[in-house]
Amino acid sequence: MAYTDLDTKCINTIRILAIDATSAANSGHPGAPMGMAPAAHVLFQKAMTFNPKNPKFLNRDRFVLSNGHGCMLHYALLHLYGYDLSIDDLKHFRQVGSKTPGHPEAHDTPGIEVTTGPLGQGISNAVGLAIAQVQAAATFNKPGFDLLNSHTYVFLGDGCLQEGVAAEAISLAGHLQLGNLIAVYDDNHITIDGDTNVSFTEDVLARFESYGWHTQHVKDGDNDLEAFEIALANAKAVTDKPSVIKLTTIIGYGSKLQGTHSVHGSPLKADDIKAVKEKFGFDPTKSFDVAPEVYAAYQETANKGAAAEQAWNELFDEYKQQYTLEAEELIRRFEKRLPEGWQNSLPVYKSDDPAIASRKLSETVLGKVINTLPELIGGSADLTGSNLTIWKGAVDFQPPSTKIGDYSGRYIRYGVREHGMGAIMNGIAAYGLHIPYGGTFLNFVSYAAGAVRLSALSQHQVIWVATHDSIGLADGNETSAAYYVALTSHHTPSVLCLSRQNLPQLENSTIANAIKGGYIVHEDEEADVTLISTGSEVGICVDAIKTLAADGIKARVVSLPCWEVFDTQDKEYRLSVLPDGIPILSVEVYTTLGWEKYSHEQFGLNRFGASGPYKDIYKKFEFTPEGIAKRAKATIDFWKGVTPIRSPINRAFTQLI
Amino acid sequence: MAYTDLDTKCINTIRILAIDATSAANSGHPGAPMGMAPAAHVLFQKAMTFNPKNPKFLNRDRFVLSNGHGCMLHYALLHLYGYDLSIDDLKHFRQVGSKTPGHPEAHDTPGIEVTTGPLGQGISNAVGLAIAQVQAAATFNKPGFDLLNSHTYVFLGDGCLQEGVAAEAISLAGHLQLGNLIAVYDDNHITIDGDTNVSFTEDVLARFESYGWHTQHVKDGDNDLEAFEIALANAKAVTDKPSVIKLTTIIGYGSKLQGTHSVHGSPLKADDIKAVKEKFGFDPTKSFDVAPEVYAAYQETANKGAAAEQAWNELFDEYKQQYTLEAEELIRRFEKRLPEGWQNSLPVYKSDDPAIASRKLSETVLGKVINTLPELIGGSADLTGSNLTIWKGAVDFQPPSTKIGDYSGRYIRYGVREHGMGAIMNGIAAYGLHIPYGGTFLNFVSYAAGAVRLSALSQHQVIWVATHDSIGLADGNETSAAYYVALTSHHTPSVLCLSRQNLPQLENSTIANAIKGGYIVHEDEEADVTLISTGSEVGICVDAIKTLAADGIKARVVSLPCWEVFDTQDKEYRLSVLPDGIPILSVEVYTTLGWEKYSHEQFGLNRFGASGPYKDIYKKFEFTPEGIAKRAKATIDFWKGVTPIRSPINRAFTQLI
């Protein structure tokens, strides 16, 4: 607890590295790293457990920099602690192909837990990490084996706190009483528009209190290292509430422009850099210069972390002896292997089975696989009864004190918080032991667009069960296939679009066909046209075959439940589904946008829908066998004069990836 | 203030109409109308000023039902007060083409101020309505002429309060000290997932207090009409803070299932309907039955509203005498007429003018038109210095007590609240006297997707100034043209995509060309290929002409800054831009999605970008003259065998609208 000049030197080294890197890149954000360096130093040196030689050590404490633009703070620490991030990597900050992109990306840099930058996401991911830790602990810890007991620490700034996604996640964290979550709010009074008094004058700690958080204020975050260390210890001692520490700091501490927004998002000027270095006792002629004793100080902590992992491994060896099945299960989940034969529990349908809404089919899948796949942790943004995302016997993930569930529960009541749910699911996925899914109406996935984008960018396996879609999955086997693909795609988020209304079981719909993303529902070697569709419209296209036959026209029908998966099939297969020689008409009760890629002509709905019983709506917009047949005929006539009619699968060149 | 049996009968009539309408539709939400009927009755009868015969009366109090699923509450009131909504309209609740859609839509129903349903939007719209009112009042009111002094009332439920967009807007409302905004929080403890204790246990009023709101709690919202009336009066008396009244109610009051989520989203069962009607003294054999004395009671208030408008009109006549220019300006803005000749202030560029970033060009446009168009009310989600959305001499819209602006200011500091900004802009637009614009990075418009969708659905004139896009607007005249289209499209939101980097002024780029959405930048009658592009890539396509010429290939170049506007041009023009006979290659450093509609082949980036200096990134992904030329050649070769090569402008049939 006694801090020495060496601590100061360490802290200033972090600051100078941030200055040098942003200066070399001629872009980036030095202000937050300079202001938060003392806090980061104390947190990493005194509170956190981690092993730089194994960034994936399961029981490590997690650190999330929610104000991701300040990433040089984290990069500097990762370098100093001996993670696989060299001084050259710091010199290549913000360059193409470097390990040090302009905002932290989990897949680029060892030691980065989650991709941040878009404000409000990191704190929400941290809530997910904390949920995952609590749930895993309740599942795997045993008497005498406090196997999983790590904390999640998150730094966040004024910007994060203004974002609604953060408000959603923070509120839920309070409800869930996540004692393993500790947030440090960098109260530096500065955002891009200047002083926070222009738009952000709420009482932040009072707000956290209203959410049920434990709150503290450290008034001199620039100098009072002891006070911050004590606050961290207090926060850890509170086990039934998440904690926030408001840490008042000066942004860009040490710069001539400290305390102003000028240090937020631009490198320091040359004379300022020189002055800061002199002020901190650094050689102003050198850049990226780290004293050996600074490396040594951090190495000592890194060694402690390695020892901690060693001790944990020994504990786990004992655990393996006593709880062999649980240990094997933990390893299996850590390695992202699904249990052998799990897919046999997926339901299979025949074409004469009754018509069922695909949200209902989804419920059936979940009911069948949930016991086989304990890594599945589901929920809904307050639409459980509509999304049908719960299963029989489900236990709510709730604080035990509420008496309505416990922490081993696998059903999360997200509340009406779609964006928070998306970002929390990203955090749960990032923890590494779960596959999260969450339900809402398809239309409201857009509320969470910011988090969905980060799921994709970060390659998180996150599953959206999106119901009440007019472009629902078509039938039972397609629904099973969709789950199969979502559950086996460990590096891709998935959105399952499910219908509210009943849909027939289709000819040729098998799991094997549907997992290809697209397949032939009805073949006709002499066809005049291919009808391509998805979800609820496929059945209507099948009905349109008869309508067309009355006029002597033959049609093939293709179901294309997933563009992205279909695109990964080889060309020969794709051409067999969408062959040359006859025109293709797409049919979907939604925008035609994008269907041009798979068809010559498109029948769609490039406007908002309307309020009414769904059968009336389909009729109004002519999504009937007759309406489809009419457009199929127009398509055939229109393409008569063109030779050859080439399938849109044929392209002049392939895209770079 | 004395309430009689007639009040009770009125309240129960609202409840019964909600029951009958949801029953007739066999869908809808009776619970909220039944629970909130007393509050709505008191609010409309005792607190609000409005004239059913003129729903657009400028100084009316606004009412927003943020929990829009409970719209039968509002429809019932609108009918009873004599708005243009008949009992037959109520009977057609949720039917195709009716004035009573499943969620309230401003354009379908007289008396509905904003379209709600997606939770959290309505309360945020209400903040926008309140901002617009305060700003208009500060602009037009004069000593002795308290011309604009209305209030905005909003009902919201637990669901709205869980949404992040609401948190953003509520926080800003507190900062802005909007004393004209009064929210009534329906504390009924029920969401779709059941009791709010499963996910929503925060202290709501403490949270509002942390944001700077005035708070009150009415504990018996079902019966204590006096207490609610007093609370409303208290809220009105507080002029320097927005007010929230927590009103504890029983959802579905009167039903056998009252207080449970079963009454939330499903019609009551027949026996329950019978029982409720008997309990309330209604004839259970009748539906949609309104007693004459109930109509009479509401008519009396409606008459008062008509008289209030009459008095206001007289006040305005006097105002016209004394403040003729201001009065004319108010009328002009109310009628959505832009000042004559305003467009002459749009800057115009020549092709030899220097390269400029289009965000900078946007700043120039704003600087030129801002004084000509006082209805423009701008801001940024804390990216003012990056979006360049402010102008010289701008006054912040701030509470005067802050001393950093005043309520006549036209520059809003939204904070890092993109979704809130979007929803607030919808509210500002709905008030009727302003054209709001807001800045953020293009990528973060997606944070506001929920609000953007409602801008489009509600036909609000809302302008997003979206910068830091690689697909930026191409040059000066295109930027001016984009503002021209955005400012003259009174029923459409617009997103202006602007570049961070400098872009050259293009040949043939004129405002007249660019406002068509697409035009020929470089013509060649003997061309082998058309290159179609947008924003920053158009200039590279122009450079590719030379690269191709070295191989004896001739290319045309087309700039397509706006798909939607281009689509509205006549076919002849579109075919002149994208003619038959030669293949078309699209070029854009972003997804190829949608470009298939305008081209035969697409060069794009179907992956996430990368971190680095932009020139390095363009090179990495081959968005160079050479990279484009290579793909243009492949396109020409590939399409050689096809006759005829038809422009994608030709379609087999047209879409229904």
Automatic annotation (TrEMBL), chains A, B:
SMART domains cross-referenced by the UniProt entry: Transket_pyr
Cofactor requirement: Co(2+); Mg(2+); thiamine diphosphate
Reaction equations catalysed: D-sedoheptulose 7-phosphate + D-glyceraldehyde 3-phosphate = aldehydo-D-ribose 5-phosphate + D-xylulose 5-phosphate
One GO BP: pentose-phosphate shunt
EC number: 2.2.1.1
CDD domains attached to this UniProt entry: TPP_PYR_DXS_TK_like (cd07033), TPP_TK (cd02012)
Gene Ontology terms: cellular component: cytosol; nucleus
Recorded GO MF terms: metal ion binding; transketolase activity
Pfam family, one: Transketolase_C_1
SUPFAM superfamilies the UniProt entry points to: Thiamin diphosphate-binding fold (THDP-binding) (SSF52518), TK C-terminal domain-like (SSF52922)
Group of enzyme by EC: transferase
Annotated ranges, domain Transketolase-like pyrimidine-binding: 356-505
Keyword field: Magnesium, Metal-binding, Thiamine pyrophosphate, Transferase
Similarity remark: Belongs to the transketolase family.
Self-association state and partner proteins as the record states: Homodimer.
Stored PANTHER family: TRANSKETOLASE, TRANSKETOLASE 1-RELATED
Name of the protein described by the UniProt record: transketolase
Originating species: Arthrobotrys flagrans (Nematode-trapping fungus)
Lineage: Eukaryota, Fungi, Dikarya, Ascomycota, Pezizomycotina
